[in-house]
Amino acid sequence: MMPGLLFVSLCVGFLGLSLALLEPIPFPASLQECYEYRSYNMTPSFEAAHQIQQYCYRNFEYQQIASGKVWSGTNITIQGINYIDSLFRQIFREVEEMERQNKNGRRTKRQTIGRRYRREVRSPGAYQPFADCIVRLQNQFVEDPSTGRNTYQTLAAFHSGQALRTAHGGPGFAPWHRIYLLLLETACGAPIPYWESGLDHDMEDPTASILWSDDFFGNGNGVVTTGPFRSMRTILGGPIIRNYGTGEGALFTKTGYNAVLSRTRYDDISEPKQGAAYFFTLEGHHNGPHTWTGGHLARPNSAPYDPVFYMHHSYVDAVYEAFRQRQRQNGINPETDYPVNTPPGHGFDDLIDFRPYINQITNRYAMSDAVANLVTYEPFANCRNRCNGSPHLYCQNGVCVSRNRPTAAPSGTFAFGDSDGAFRRNQERMRFAEAAGPIPAGEKFRTAPLRDIRNQEDRLGIAPVAPEIQAASMQVREVQARFRRDVSHLSKNESLHHGSHQSISSIGRSYTNSFILDGVVDQKRWVYVPVRIVYTRSPNVKGTDPTLLGNSELQNDVCQTAHSGASKVFVASDGLDYYGNYKEFAIIDERQPVSVTTTAVGIKNPEFGEGEVLFTSYDSCGRPCRPLCLTSVNGQQKYKACSGAFKISSAAPTLYRNSYKEAISVSLSSYNLVDSSLDDASPPVTFVCGNDNAWPWVY
C-alpha cells in the first residue's frame, strides 16, 4: 500500500462508514484513452497531470455534446456543424502546408501575401473585397433558413454568452480572437483589413473621418443606413446601431500602442489587471474603439453583428504580432511565454471555446508560429512611407491622419462635425435608435485605460441580453441579469469552474458557481455531498518537509503559497452524462505536515434522474490529488484508490443534502472521536494531496 493510502486508512479506519448515493463506476473508456495517450512515455509531473485532466475532460465534454448525449442548448443543425468544421479543416491544412514548405525551404512568411495579407482599411484596394464578402455572407445560409440565422450571423454568434469568459478577461483574449479572425477570413476567401483607429484619434474631430461614409463603414450615428452594411440585421432582426464619439474610452491611440510594446512579457499585457498595470494591457486598449463607436459594437454580446468588429480586431491582432516580434528581439520565445496563474478557461492548454462546434485548438496552438505565419500585416502608416500611399490619409504634424468625409464640415460647425443636411439626417437616425430603447445585449466593454474628453454622453442605455442572442450562441448562454438574481441566494462560496494554479494573494477571493444544470438555473436540481481532504505539505528544494526544520525554511518551499497558515484545495464535480460543473474549495493549514478537513460539492439531484459524475481535486500549487472511493471490500466499507467516477442514484442511505451547510454537518460528528460510532456517515470520496511521483488517476 502506498504511504499516502496507509495514512488515510489510519485516519478514517475508526470512523463510521456507510454507503452514500454515489457508487464508484468504471472510468469512461474515451477518457482513459485520452489520459493514456497524453501521458504516454512521459515522466509523471504535477503540472502535466493537471493539464491532462483538464484537457481530456474538456474533450470528453465536447464529444458528449456533439453526439447529443449531453444537453447543448438550442438544437444544432448538422449543416452548421459541417460548415464550421470545414473552415477549421481548411485552416489546419493551410498550417500543415505552410510548415511543410517552410521545412523544405520553398516558402517564407512574406510569400503568404495574397490570401492573408492584411492592410489598413484605407489602403488602396484593401476594403472592397472584405465588404463584398460580408454582404455575400449576409445573403447565404449554411443552416436551414428556419433557424433565422444567415451565414454571417452563424459566425457572429460565437462571440456571446458563456464563451466570452474565455475570450475576454484573461490571456486567452489574443489567441481566441486570432482563431476567430481566421475563421471569418477563411469563410470570406479575402483578408480582413485592419482599422488603425489611432489615425482617426489624431484628427481634430474623429467622427468626421472618411471611414464613416458611404465608401467605408457607413454612418456612425444611429441606425446604419449608408454604406455596404446598410441592409444588415442583427440576430434580433433590427438594424445595426452606432453612437460614435460617445462614452469615456478613447480610440486605440499611439500612446496605447507604445504602452503595450513597452512590456516584454505576455503576462504584463494580459488581463485581469487593476490600477496602474491596466494601462499596459492589450485588451484594455482594445476596449476603447468598442465603447467609442457605441451601439452594438460597445457590447460584447452584440459586437460581431457590426462588421467593424473584425476590422478593429484585425488591428488588435497586428499590435499583438508586433509585440511578439518585440519579444523575439529581447530573447523571449512568444510561443511559450504564458502566465502561470490564469482565470478559468484561460490556461495555456485549455481549448479555445467555440462550442458546440468541436475543435482541438488550444491557446498554446493558437499562439504558435505555425498559426502566426498564416498572416502578414502591411506596415503601419507613417509619414516616412507616405501613409502607405493611401489617398484617404495625409501627413500632419509628423503623423498620418485620416481625411474628412465629403459631408463633414469644419470642426465645431455642427455637433459631430457634419454639414447641416448630414447633421439633420444623423439626428433622425439617432431618434429612431433611441426610440427602439436600450440595446438588449447586456453590459458594455470595460472602460479603456485612456479617456477622450471630446466624447459625448451615450444615451442608448443598457438592457439584459435578449433570449434570441442567448439561443443563437448555440450553447449554454446565461443572461447576466437573470444569473445574478437566481444565484444570489444559493451560495456565497467559491467557484468558477476549473481555475488553474491559485495565486498567492487570492486566499480570500470568492467565486460563484453558474448553477446551470442541463440548461436550467434551479437550486432544486443540485444537491451536496461531503468530500474529505487529506493534505500533506510539498517538500522544499532539499526534498524534506520544511515544517520539520522551522519557518526559516519556508522560503525554500517548492510550492510558494501565502504561508499565512491558510491555503486552498479545490474539488470539482463534472457531469459525465449531464451538463453541469461545480467547484468548491477547502481551507487547510499548510504549516502542518498533515492537514485533514472536509468540504461539500454540488452534483446533480437524483430526483431529476440518475447521472454520472467525475470528481477531481488539486491544491493551490496545481498538484492533482488522488481520489479514494468508499467501497465494499469483503463485506466491509473501506476506502480504496479509484478513478473518481461515480454513478448518482437515489439508493439509500443518502448522504446528500440540499445545501452546502447541511452536507458539511453530515460529517462533523465523525471528528468527535469520543462520541463517534460506526453509524456515523463518512464522505463517499476522499482526496489525498501528496507528493507521490506518479500519475494521480486509477482506472
Automatic annotation (TrEMBL):
<dbReference type="InterPro" id="IPR008922">
    <property type="entry name" value="Di-copper_centre_dom_sf"/>
</dbReference>
<dbReference type="GO" id="GO:0004503">
    <property type="term" value="F:tyrosinase activity"/>
</dbReference>
<dbReference type="GO" id="GO:0046872">
    <property type="term" value="F:metal ion binding"/>
</dbReference>
<keyword id="KW-0732">Signal</keyword>
<keyword id="KW-0186">Copper</keyword>
<protein>
    <submittedName>
        <fullName>Putative tyrosinase</fullName>
        <ecNumber>1.14.18.1</ecNumber>
    </submittedName>
</protein>
<dbReference type="InterPro" id="IPR002227">
    <property type="entry name" value="Tyrosinase_Cu-bd"/>
</dbReference>
<feature type="signal peptide">
    <location>
        <begin position="1"/>
        <end position="20"/>
    </location>
</feature>
<dbReference type="Pfam" id="PF00264">
    <property type="entry name" value="Tyrosinase"/>
</dbReference>
<dbReference type="InterPro" id="IPR050316">
    <property type="entry name" value="Tyrosinase/Hemocyanin"/>
</dbReference>
<feature type="domain" description="Tyrosinase copper-binding">
    <location>
        <begin position="306"/>
        <end position="317"/>
    </location>
</feature>
<keyword id="KW-0560">Oxidoreductase</keyword>
<keyword id="KW-0479">Metal-binding</keyword>
